[in-house]
Amino acid sequence: MTSSAGSSRTSAPRQKQRRSSRRSGHTSGRDSRAQSALGDFQTLPLEIFQMVLNYLSVKDISMLSMVSKTISGLLINYISTSSGSRRLLLQDFHRPELPGRREGASILEHYKALGLLLKRCTLLLPTRDRLKYVHKVLSGVSCFKLNGCASPLHCLGLQCYGVFLQILTAGWDELECHRVFNFLWELSNLARKVQTVVSSKPGSARRLELRIRLFCRGVLLSPGSHRSDSAFWLTRILKPWPMVNQARLLYIIFGPVSSRDGHVVWQKMIEGPTDETSLKGLADAIKLLYGTEAREWTADDVISLVDELSVVPQEWLMENNARLLLLSGNSICFTFLASKAVNGRAVELARLMVFMALVCEKDLYCMDWAVKMMQKVCKVFSSPWERNNFLQCLENTFAHMLMDMLQAVLAGERDEEDSSFLNLFHLVNAQANFHKEILYMAMGNNSSTT
């Protein structure tokens, strides 16, 4: 009994020893696997490893992050350190050089590379965790915030943030991109800010209008993005709002601005004829929404948006409407005109057609384009009477506009540019060239060969 009890007591420590050796063997196995994942860096203390990183470019660090999960984890820790932040989060956004010049291009390229680095480092994390980590890293950069920069017109911060996000989210599926948009929307409190500008009197919140414009164009609609990406982000910005607010918001983001202070010029389309430069941003946005990339928009949606836009903040001059349609492309232009024809708005359609001819004359477009567009629209009418009524309205509009302009010239209504006489001159030429193209078409000749 004594000997057996003694043998059992002596065997217990041996069992503990074996369990201890198994545990130590398991731990050493994990350590060895981690060390093998570090490769030659396993011999370096963490401080020396981070010092080595200071000598590597961002692109090289990005490549290094793909070596193993262990190294990727070390890089994530490095990016979060104060030395890593100072090294990687460059904040020289206010150089006097323009974005297209060398210095501006250099910092934009840096943030493209940084976006790729964080994309690779966070590859295995869920989208929500990736966004939280990225926000934690970038939260110290004030120029990345909607109201963070004191001089936003002379700052590259939002553009750098935009190219960073563009690279980070490239290849993400639509659901993930929805989460990105919602994260940014909530983070910047954009819903409340947009509500303020679209429900206030135009121009009453000029600074906020400017901030929203710069944030949307710089961050969400980053220049150089693929059309499908731009269509997605623009849809996310506009779709939550009623049509009238969509038009107002579209004007804030893409409408004309003052060259002096960058604020939106609300009276530009109302006070007088404008130029192509003032309308190009709006036209490009309309083409984007009308294209195949914007799957959530129907042709009727886009036409309604253009119609609503033409009264923001008040009814535009018809010449500016015509110029916007020309810049928006053949498909949108025809669809818009055809909708007028189908709805029996012959007088309005005739006026718009005359102003299109005037814009073609002023801006040196081929007049046969306007005539062919008119011919195409004529086929939309359901009866010969409706078509003939439209053509009669067209000729009456030419005559009334000529008489009104002639009366203004005879009354001596002249300004420094003598615009009354110039308008009359352009309209007379527009009418002559418009009817010349009709005659060529009627006689079976091609104007380009005569």
From TrEMBL:
Residues 1-14 have a biased composition (Polar residues). Residues 15-25 have a biased composition (Basic residues). It holds the Pfam family F-box. Residues 1-36 are annotated as: Disordered. PROSITE patterns: FBOX. Residues 38-88 form the F-box domain. InterPro entries: ARM_FBXO47 (IPR056622), F-box-like_dom_sf (IPR036047), F-box_dom (IPR001810), FBXO47 (IPR038946). It comes from the Eukaryota. SUPFAM superfamilies: F-box domain. This is FBX47 protein. It comes from Nicator chloris. The lineage of its organism: Eukaryota, Metazoa, Chordata, Craniata, Vertebrata.
